[in-house]
Specification:
The complex is a heterodimer of chains A (172) and B (266). Chain A is α+β, with helices and mostly antiparallel strands and 172 residues long. Helix content of chain A is 44%, strand content 20%. Chain A has a 6-stranded mixed sheet, with helices on both faces. Chain A has a two-stranded antiparallel sheet with strand order 7-8. The longest helix of chain A is centred in the C-terminal third of the chain and has 22 residues. Chain A is globular. The model of chain A has no long low-confidence stretch (mean pLDDT 91). The longest helix of chain B has 22 residues. Chain B is 48% helix and 13% strand. Chain B contains 13 helices and 7 strands. Chain B is of the alpha+beta class. The chains are: A alpha+beta (172), B alpha+beta (266). At the A-B interface, α2 and α7 of A face α5, α6, α12 and α13 of B.
Chain lengths: 172, 266
């Protein structure tokens, strides 16, 4: 997010990804906030399927969002070539788009990527016909535990509490 | 400045004055003052012994460097505090809407947090702002997704607070519901789409007088100035809270906010 950046509009990012039929799972803070967690920053994290056809569609979506690579604070972002081969090579891409920051991680810590996360992901309706695949709470916890950064570990109690709440609701 | 803020946090968590800490540690009060002002940086051993005199332990270890917050903190620090709040409230709205959709709650209207603050200021309530809005005003990257205004009010304002709450369509949002400032109380302010939380003494603090001492006056509008708890004290509250989820973001914000901009990028 730069001082003159456009408003953070995660819905637009998700709509563009859906329109381009990008297969991906939403993870990270955005997924956590939907589960009731209050620790969230202005970005959205996704893990895409890494087959050639999907990466081609992802490149198209990123082009529409005018995605560029975030570098060091205060430095202008570097334009992202619309090249699926680059997307295939990069394990992590921290991007800025005209709808906010988008982080693409092909293998989040503690997981083996899209196919792994897809198994337990749920389809989350977000209104007006938009559905997205959201990583399960268990997988978010697994990934944050494996990442092991202070900020990941600090949110684990809230995530575990959310998991327990959901378990109690299911039991009732 | 990291040593300075750690020492201030430790001393205040222990409820000690500089003079009392100096007596306990067997050093001159001026030495403590110099460390806390950042004029002199204590050695690690010295800092550890001063923190031990507060009956706290300075723990440390090696962890992977994490600069993932830096981009957003740097962007926030480049703005004036009022702009930080404006952007953060704006950016919180799509998250609140998505959460409402996911939980099948009623779509949440934008929280008029400025309206709540204005109502409190206009009523002449003496308070300091804490919580997610105070954090944002200091440059925190965490989005104020709850739309809650959290304050610590000076004692003896029960009637005036009750009037403001009633005028804002207030109703208790949790039990025990008492428009008092001697127990935590939470109110839904229907007219402003927001919640007001009144905390008598946040964790790790002694309440209003303690936080007011280092609070900073921040202009939010032409005729709206609010007292905001200092970032050091916000870290202190987060550290002492049962849920420490906000600590990493606030610590990093404090580190970057006390680093000159040129050194930040490096």
């Amino acid at each position: 997010m730069l001082p003159d950046s456009a408003p953070f509009d995660p819905r637009r990012i998700l709509e563009v990804l859906a329109r381009h039929e990008v297969q991906c799972v939403v993870i990270g803070g955005y997924a956590a906030v939907l589960a009731g967690i209050d620790i969230v920053t202005r970005d959205i994290d996704i893990t895409p399927a890494t087959d050639q056809a999907n990466l081609q569609r992802l490149a198209g979506a990123l082009g529409e969002l005018h995605a560029a690579i975030r570098v060091r604070p205060g430095e202008p972002p570097v334009p992202l070539p619309a090249d699926p081969r680059l997307l295939a090579r990069a394990e992590i891409l921290n991007l800025t788009t005209d709808a906010g920051d988008l982080d693409i991680t092909s293998r989040p810590d503690g997981t083996s990527g899209y196919d792994d996360l897809k198994q337990a992901a749920r389809q989350q309706p977000l209104g007006k016909g938009l559905h997205i695949a959201i990583a399960s709470l268990e997988d978010i916890i697994r990934s944050k535990t494996a990442a092991g950064r202070a900020k990941d570990l600090a949110t684990l109690p809230q995530l575990r509490a959310a998991l327990e709440r959901r378990g109690r609701r299911s039991a009732n | 400045m990291l040593s300075a803020s750690l020492l201030v946090q430790a001393r205040r968590l222990a409820g000690l004055s500089q003079r009392e800490l100096a007596a306990r540690a067997g050093v001159a009060q001026q030495e403590i003052a110099r460390y806390e002002r950042g004029r002199v940086t204590p050695s690690l051993e010295r800092l550890r012994s001063l923190i031990a005199a507060c009956e706290l332990e300075l723990t440390f270890g090696l962890a992977r460097a994490d600069s993932s917050y830096d981009h957003q903190i740097a962007a926030a620090l480049a703005l004036a505090p009022a702009q930080r709040l404006e952007q953060a409230v704006r950016d919180a709205q799509p998250l609140r809407a998505a959460r409402a959709q996911a939980t099948r709650a009623r779509a949440s209207a934008p929280a008029d947090v400025l309206g709540v603050i204005r109502a409190l200021v206009r009523a002449g309530i003496q308070f300091v702002l804490i919580g997610e809005l105070a954090e944002v005003l200091h440059g925190s990257p965490l989005v104020p997704v709850t739309g809650t205004v959290t304050i610590v009010a000076r004692a003896g304002q029960r009637e005036r607070l009750s009037t403001v709450i009633a005028a804002s369509g207030g109703m208790p949002a949790a039990t025990p519901a008492t428009p008092a400032i001697d127990a935590p109380a939470r109110f839904t302010l229907k007219a402003l789409g927001s919640e007001l939380v009144i905390e008598p003494a946040p964790p790790g603090t002694q309440g209003y007088d303690d936080l007011r001492r280092d609070a900073v006056a921040i202009q939010l509008g032409e005729d709206l100035v609010v007292m905001v708890t200092s970032l050091v004290d916000l870290v202190r509250i987060a550290e002492a809270s049962e849920d420490r989820a906000r600590v990493p973001a606030l610590r990093r914000t404090l580190e970057l906010a006390t680093t000159p901009p040129a050194a930040r990028a490096a």
